[in-house]
Each structure stands twice: as structure tokens, then as C-alpha cells.
Amino acid sequence: MTELAHPAVRGPDDAKRRYLESTGPRRFARFWGEFIRRRPLGTAGAVLIIIMLLTAALADRIAPYDPTAFNFADLLQGPSLQHLLGTDPFGRDVFTRIIYGSRTALLVGFTASFVGCTLGLVFGVVGAYLGGRIDQLIQRLMDVLLSFPLIVIAIAVVAALGTGEGKIGNVIAAITVPIIPRVARVVRSSALSIVNMPYIEATRAVGSGAVRIMFRHIAPNVFAPYLIMLTAFLGQAILLEATLSFLGLGVFEPTPSWGLMLRGAGMQFLEQAPWLAIAPGVAISMAVFGFNLFGDSLRDALDPRLRTA
Amino acid sequence: MFNRQIAALPVALALLLAACTPAPKGSAATQSASGAEQPQPGGTLTFIVNAEPPSFDGHRETTFALLHPIAPHYSTLYKFDPGDLTKVIPDVAAAMPEVSADKLSYTIKLRTDVKFHDGSKMTSDDIVATYQKIIFPPTGVLSPRAGAYAAVETITNPAPDSVVFKLKYPSASFGTNLASPWNFIYSAAKLKTDIHWYEKNIMGTGPFTYVSNTKGQDWVGKKFPDYFGKDKNGVQLPYLDGYKALIITDANAEVNAIRSKQAAIEFRGFTPQQRDTLSSALGTSLAIQEAPWICVNYIVPNTKKPPFDDVRVRQALTLAIDRYAGSTALQKITIVKDVGGLMRPKGPFAQADADLQKIAGFGTDGAANKAKAKQLLADAGQSNLTFKFLNRNITTPYEPVALFVLDQWKQIGINATHDVKETSAYQADLRAGNFEVALDFNCDFLDEPDLQLAKFWSASGLGKGLNFAYYDDATLDKMIDGQSRETDPAKRKALVADIEKYAMDTKAYQYPVLWWYRIIPYLNTVRGWRIGSNHYTNQDLETVWLGK
Amino acid sequence: MRRYVAGRLLLMIPTLIGVAILTFVIMRAVPGDIVALKYAGSPVPQSIIDDERHQLGLDKPMWEQFTDWMGEIARFDLGTSLWTGHSVVEEIEVRFPLSLELAIIATLLAVLIAIPLGVVAAVKQDTWVDYAIRLFSIGGLAMPSFWIGLLMVLATITFFGWAPPLVFTAITEDPIANLSQMILPALSVGYRYSAVSMRMTRSTVLEVLREDYVRTARAKGVSESVVVMRHALRNALLPVITVVSLEFAFLIGGLVVTEQVFNLNGIGKLLVDAVAHRDYTLIQALVLLLAAVFVIINFVVDMVYVVLDPRIRYS
């Protein structure tokens, strides 16, 4: 039934699958060499991602100021040499907060996407392999999650567990939940095509346990769609964090976050201090842009026929 | 370049203020230049309300979102003088009440020319039925403000044009409470058929009749031709042909509505940056009125949670806050401004600045206060105090106020984290005592110690559900009760000052950060509306008119 | 065939029941209380709060509240909003047409942009045309739509002194007023939405272009435009329809931020307000409604597949 919604999703080519299973350094180098040569957009995306990773890793060294230190004498300063992107209503350096904001974005993006995709992978593989009642149950559960309005999940998680400093995990949870069913659907249909392959039968005949078959033999074979979705949802998770923060349901002051910088003051000062809204908006867009460019090209490189909705 | 623009704004504003609006005199504004013009009848006023009313019954709701669209349909017994919002004047009453010598009996003569929108005549029966519902609600009828009339023993009507309130004991606030903007006069006949009728229907004696209401979008009213009100030249009120209230919840959308002239005014209040955006876009077609507001944020340490049961810790928290520096910075970015105690600064019950400054945390020497705060923490063995500061997820003004306070605490070595919750969850935590220190708030329609001190009653007594510091203090209860029964204004003010010293300093139970400041930028075609110290009263739009 | 359709229809029921249970449990588990919130910040004694909770039936045991609700649903009664005291149907009927219309306009815009661009990008794969189209579309996925929305309003108001009308007029009443309110939000949503559909169009067309029968057609000397239009696009459309319909289902309730930024009186905003108020009856009704819309659209998509693609029918 669910295959109907994603009929185009199929298992990866055998060749590509074998490629992914082999992690030999030479093949690895050849693959990326080809990737850079043939996919300039994907390479640009990769560069954006690397810049972002470096920024996050070296935030302490690059950032000219303390991201949370107030300076009421310097509030709402325009861009200048002292403050490249100006200051906010508390006199904090916007450039510094953008730099530290990359940490929040990456943390939320990576964790939510990784956890969501991995849980989706587990549900998808388990459903496809076990079939029958359990598969039905998982599918219905995923349908429920999928048809449940995202915003209600978000508010519920955030309201039940709270947000604020040091509670970023709750925001991540809110973003993770809606990723799970979307991944599970795709993984399930990919896995279904593998479950009936002769070599799985053979493994079973040898006496391998169900868990071993699922995670040693099936899971690696749906790794390609998993990887593609991981990159795609990474960008979406960053965007979702921004949206939730904008609605007052995400990360909170004084944590530096791009989405948060757009909320309230950032938007209210849109005209007096446009840098407050433009800088974080551009940062979010570039980050998501990078992940999407890279993810798209990765998909093309791994399997031109494989798509995710 | 942007800096210069911002720096120039206050000057431009000052000019605008001088040109279009009165300089505030005390809490009340003086006669404005535009007020001297001859009002022109006609036109429809479109204004913004940034929330939606729950039910339509003023007696049971507590939000301004009900008053702004609905108050124009109703009259009250008394109301606040639109020209001097500290003064009570008759509305459907014919004169001020006659108070007996023992102050236990209030006799009120009514106007005889008041008609309901259905054409029926208003009589003392309607007043009695209305106040019976408010003060002695039958089972199943909610009246959240019944407590303000606890002194009332009976309501009777000896004649169709007169009503008598008998009190059990003298009450200083009873007279002004009869001007409560919530006490809409309802028809006795309607209440008799269904006491809940007014929750979903409108039928009053006010200047405007109900036309339509689209949920989540707008509320429309039109002039009631048989309205009893006339202006001082004998011209029939209201001046307007009608009004339309637009429900707009987003701050930017509100600004855009006024900027594109789709709405003329929002009666609650805008932030300084919303004002500045409008003033630079609209120039001289914008008028601005500003006034101190009877709204304030409190810092509330939960006295049930150690170490906040230790008065030294609570004192340190208030001493650490340099309210004067905070005022200078925060008034540029949000809707707070004045430093004050428990009563509105510059209001009738506010202490003189010199007296206020003797209270812990209100002194002007910030550095000395911080040193003292550190010492207190050290004495209490809490030099490395760490706690969570509960706040709600509303930007204006909670976020900047909380960030400012957190920064102040950080300066004396307190490591407090910002614990932001969605409003409903925040309320739940407050009510369950599930927090360490919280940022609370309070808004009232009147400078009245009984209202502003309601949060200070013992938590297990009258303060239940209001006092989130969770202390019980019989001494303080006695002090609050004492000022309430004191009918001499000067003596009462002194008693209130004692309470401020005791509650904010001696015991340091809970204390304000900064008082809010109301800013109303509006199209200068709107005339005859004057800003007051609250956003509840003066909303019947009776004397508002539209100029060129 | 009939058995398949019937089975598919029956599967909607457990999903909706699951949604109902989940909504009920989640909202009750989340702290907060509508009555306490209603009187927040006002000196209201606890007894008043308790009274109102009792009147609203919030002091009943959980299971009783749930069975009450299920009983109402079985009688097609969505109940009364706890916040306004008006019927839930009344609350929804004002907002639903707006959200539906916005979703439809955004979908039309998205499809109009996405399909031609997607086909062109596929045909011109790995040329600068493809790159430009993909950059444009990925941009739509990358920028927060509320951010674009705000910048659009700011731009029109700064340069033209014009802002979209704030009051909804039905399209039957005054199409110009209606569209001038809808066009900016529809664009800001449609852009993102077109990106999703464009990517799908591109990759399905790419895939179809590699199919044997297309190669055969080409080998036979059929002109490229005929190949693309007649063979590739027609066969590539099915997955695109899926994506478009699923996105459409999400849009009806998912335009929360857009509705906020453009002050649109729609279902998304109503849902957020209802959750913020803890207005249980309204939340339950809305979530169930949105889930039903989603499930039904899914069902219709599946049926379209069955009709268009016989392989599925027989498998």
C-alpha cells in the first residue's frame, strides 16, 4: 500500500550497492574525484558545508566577541569595522552570534536528521523483513505520525519538556519525530526489494538470526537512500529549527541561533536595523542550500533513478 | 548611517509629541491641541485588536481583547473621565453616589433616558440584575472580579431610577470599582430568560450596536441613534457612524496595517521600534501618545525552594539589579521604562523618588548595591548560586527584561539559566510551584492598592493562585487589609509605603523589575481619544471622531 | 479490484483512530490548563478556576473524557470550543475556505513553475540551464518561507506603500480583493512547493528518458520534443502527482507561519492558537480533520495510480 505513495523508489543498482559496501580508499578517491569533476553544484554544496563545519569547530577562535556579552553602550550599531554585521538590541556582535549560531544549526540539524533517519531505517527494515502483523502495525503507526500535524507535535514536545538554555535536546526531539515516518516509508520499500533476494534466503538457511539478517545484510543495502535522506533532512531540520524558533517554540535566548535572531527583535527592527534580519536569513539559506546542493548531487551520483519525495 | 537615523528619532518624536499630543501632566494628559477642535461627526474608525475575545460576556472575561471590540456596545454605571482618566464620572448614573455618614450605604440615582439597543428602557431592575450577577453569581456563573465587591451586603432598588448598595464595612475602593470597565449593564429581561445569554450575544445601552463578527478576523459596530449621550454642546454622541476592529496578532502585520492605512490605531500599545518604523514611514500623518502603564514585571523567588527561603538570597537578587541602568537601555528596545515600587510610578500612590531609593534594589548606586548583594550571598553561603529563571515565550517585553536581569545577576557571580516555556506551560509551572525564580507580570485598570497588592496576600489565603512566591505572612495580610479599610487618602498612601518597604526589602518576597510604558502611534485622523495609564478603560469610543 | 479499494478504505479507520488517541493523550500530557490561562495575570481566586474547569468537564477522569469525545464523534458532533464557547464547526467553517484557497493557488503556481522547469532541466541535464534551474529551485527549499514573506511585504510596502488587504473577501464576492490578499502568501509558499515538485519532475523525466521505449522512439527518429512531451512527460507525471497531492494535504494545515506573517485567518493559525490555549475540543477536531484530509488525499492518489498504472492492479 505504502509503495503506492512512493512507487518510484527502488533499490539501488547492484553495482552502486557493491561500490558502497566496499570502502577501499582508491575507489573512495575515484568516486569523489568524479563527483568534483562531474557535479559542480554538488561540489559547491560540499564547500559550503565544509566552511560551515570549520566555522562551528573554530567558533571560539574566529569570533571577535563573546556571543552573550551585553554592551548597552553599543546597541543597534550598524555594520562597521568593529562590528562587521553590526550589533543587536543588547549590543551583542551579530557576526559573533552568526558564527556561534552555526553550532546550534549543525547540532540540531545533524542530531535530528541522524536520529530521525536511523529510527526510520530501523522501522523500515524491521517492517519489511518481518512483514505480517508487525509490518502492518508499524505502517499504521507511521501513517498516524505522518498525518499528524507537525506543529502540534512540535508544540507538544516543547511544551511538555520545555526549552530554554541547555534544553536544545527537546527542540531536536520535536524535529526528529516528523522525520521518522518519512524515512521509514522509503526505506521499507527499498528493503522490500532486497528481502526477497536469494542471498537473504541463503543467509537464513545458514541459520542467521533475524536481527543479524536485518542489520548485517539488509540495512547496508538501503544505505544509499538513507544517506541521501540524511543530507536532505539535515537541511530541512535546520530550516525547521529556524521556523520553530521564529514561532517561539524553538531555541531560546541567550543561545545564539539563526532562527532565533529572526524572531521578535530581528523582525521588529527590520527597518531601523536591517542587518539583524538579513544576516541570519542569509546564513540559514546558505546552510540549507549547501546541504541540498550536496544531497541532490549525491543522489544523482549514487543512483539517478532513486528519488525521495 | 543607520545610527544617525536612530539618534535623530527621539528629536523627531519630541517634536511630534509636542505638536500632536499633550505633554503628560502627572498621570493624566492635559487638554490636547486637537481636543480643542470642533468634533466632526461621521466616518468609520478601523482599529487593531491583537487577540480575539473568548466569550462576549464582560462580566466573566479578563482580557482587553474583549473590551476593545465589545465595550462600545455597553454602558457602565460610572466610568473614567476621558479627559482625566483618574477621575470617575457618571455613565448611566445621573450623578455621583450619595454616601451615608457611616460610609456603609451608597445611593445612586439613574438617568431616565437610557435605552437598550432593542428599544426597551433601562431601569434600576437592570442595574440590580447586572450587579447581582457580578457580585453574587448563581452557581454555574463565573465572576472573576466578585472579590473586589466583597464588602457589599445587599443591592436594592427603592425606585425605578435609584439603586442602593449596602456595605458590610467601609471600603476605600468600592466607589472606583463601580467604574470598572468590565461591568457592562445588561438587560434584566435577557438575564432572566438565560443568565448565559450574554456569553454569545450582544445587547447593551452603549453608543454602538452590534453589526457582525467574523471569527478570527473582525468585529463591526454601528452608531446607536437612540444613545443617551450628548456632548457639552448638546450634539448627539457618538460622533462616529461606526467602527471595525481588525484582529491582527503579528507585530509586523500590525505595523503594516497602520502604515498602509488599513487601520488607524491599536489601543494596547506598540514597541519603540514599531513606533519608529511608523514615524519614519508616515511622517506628519502619524500622531503619538505615550504614558506610564499600570503593568509591571515581577521577579518572584519561590520561597518554598531553598535557598530562596533565605531572605538574604532574595535581597541579593533584587540588589543586584541596577534598575536605572536597565531603564536607560531597555526603554530603547522594548515597552518598559520607569523605575517604581509596587504602585505605578508617577501614579497617585507612588512614593517620592527619595523614599523609594531607600528600598533595597532601588538605590541609585548600582556598584554599591552589587557589592552588598555579593556580601549577602556570601553570608548565606550561596556565593556560587545557580538556578533556573522561568519565563514565558513572549518577546515583548519578557525576553529583553529577562535577558537584562540575567546579565545583572551574572555580574555578581550568579549563574542563572533562562528557562523559557510556552505561556500555558509557564502558567502551569507557576501554579504548581514548579520553579525556582520566575518572571511574573501584572496589569490592572486602575491605580488601586487593592488591585496591585492582590498578589501579596498569603499564598494559602487570599493570595491563592496569585501569590507565586508561596509565602504565608499574617503580618503582611494585616497590613494589606489595613490599607484597604483606610478611607483617608493620605493615610492610606503611607500605609501602602510601609507595605512596599516590608514586602520588597525587609522580606524581599517579590519585587518589580521595571514598569511598562504605553506607546500608541496612530493616524492623526483619529481625534478625541486620550491615552491613559491602562488599556482597559476609556474604550467606549463615545467621543472619538475622525478629522481630516 | 473492488476488494483492494475496500481494503484500502478500511485501512483509513485505524489510522484515524490512532490519530485520535495520540492527540488526546499528547494534549492531556502537555502541562497547561485552559482555564488557568484564560485568567492568567488577573486576580482570580482558585474557586472560580475550579468552577469553570468543572463546567467544561475538565475535572472528569481521563477515560470518561475520552469516551465522551468518541461518543460525540460517532454522532458526528465535533463539540464546542472550550475557549470561545462557540461550536467547533462555527470556528472552522470561517477559516477553512481561506486555507483551502491558499493551498489551491499555491499548488497551481507551484505546478505552473515546476513542470516546465523540471522538464527543461532534465532534457538539458548537466548544462548551465539545468544548473540555473536547480539553483533557483534549491533556493526555494533553502530560504525560510516566512523570511521571504516578510521581505516581500516589506518591499511592497516600502516601494509602493501597499500592503495586502487584511480582511478576507470570498473570491466569489470580489475576485480582485481576494487575489490581492492571496497572491503574496501564495507566492512565498508556492516557491518552496515548486522546488519540491520541480526536483521530482526532473528526476522522473530523467529516469523515463533512459527507459528502453524512449530510446527506441529516439532511435526510430521521432523528434526530441515529441519524445519528451508524448512519452517522457506523460509517464513521468504519476510520481509528480503524488508529490503535489501530498504537499497539498500538508499545506492545508501547515501554513502556520505564512498565515501569521500575512495575518491570514486560516486553519493553521487557528490550530496554533487552539494548542496554545489548550482548547482540547478544538485541537482534537482540527487534528482529526487535517488527518482525514491527508488520509483521503492519500487514498485518492492511490486510486489514481490503480487507474493509470495497471501493473499495480494485478500485482
Written description of the protein model:
The complex is a heterotrimer of chains A (309), B (548) and C (315). Mean pLDDT of chain A is 80; it is low at 1-15 and 304-309. Chain A is globular. Chain A starts with a helix and ends in a 7-residue tail after the last helix. Chain A is built from 15 helices and no strands. Chain A is mainly alpha-helical and 309 residues long. Chain B has 548 residues and is of the alpha+beta class. In chain B, helix 8 (311-319) packs antiparallel against helix 11 and helix 15 runs antiparallel to helix 16 (489-506). The two termini of chain B are 34 Å apart. The relative contact order of chain B is 0.16. The relative contact order of chain C is 0.14. Chain C is built from 14 helices and no strands. At the A-C interface, helix 7, helix 8, helix 12 and helix 15 of A face helix 1, helix 6, helix 7, helix 8 and helix 10 of C.
List the helices and strands and how they pair.
The complex is a heterotrimer of chains A (309), B (548) and C (315).
Chain A: H1 2-5, H2 14-21, H3 25-38, H4 40-57, H5 59-62, H6 94-130, H7 132-147, H8 150-161, H9 168-195, H10 198-206, H11 210-218, H12 223-246, H13 258-262, H14 265-268, H15 275-302
Helix pairs in contact in A: 4-6, 4-15, 6-7, 6-9, 6-11, 6-12, 6-15, 7-9, 8-9, 9-12, 12-15
Chain B: H1 2-20, E1 24-25, E2 28-29, E3 44-49, H2 64-70, E4 78-81, E5 84-90, E6 98-99, E7 105-109, H3 124-135, E8 152-159, E9 162-167, H4 174-177, H5 188-193, E10 208-214, E11 218-223, E12 242-247, H6 251-259, E13 265-266, H7 272-282, E14 286-301, H8 311-319, H9 323-333, H10 353-356, H11 366-379, E15 386-392, H12 398-411, E16 415-421, H13 423-432, E17 437-443, H14 449-452, H15 474-485, H16 489-506, E18 511-523, E19 526-527, E20 545-546
Parallel strand pairs in B: 3-12, 3-13, 15-16, 15-17
Antiparallel strand pairs in B: 1-2, 4-5, 6-7, 7-9, 8-9, 10-11, 11-12, 14-17, 14-18, 19-20
Helix pairs in contact in B: 6-7, 8-11, 15-16
Chain C: H1 2-29, H2 34-38, H3 46-55, H4 62-74, H5 88-123, H6 128-142, H7 145-160, H8 175-209, H9 212-219, H10 224-254, H11 256-261, H12 267-277, H13 280-308, H14 310-314
Helix pairs in contact in C: 1-13, 5-6, 5-8, 5-10, 6-8, 7-8, 8-10, 10-13, 12-13
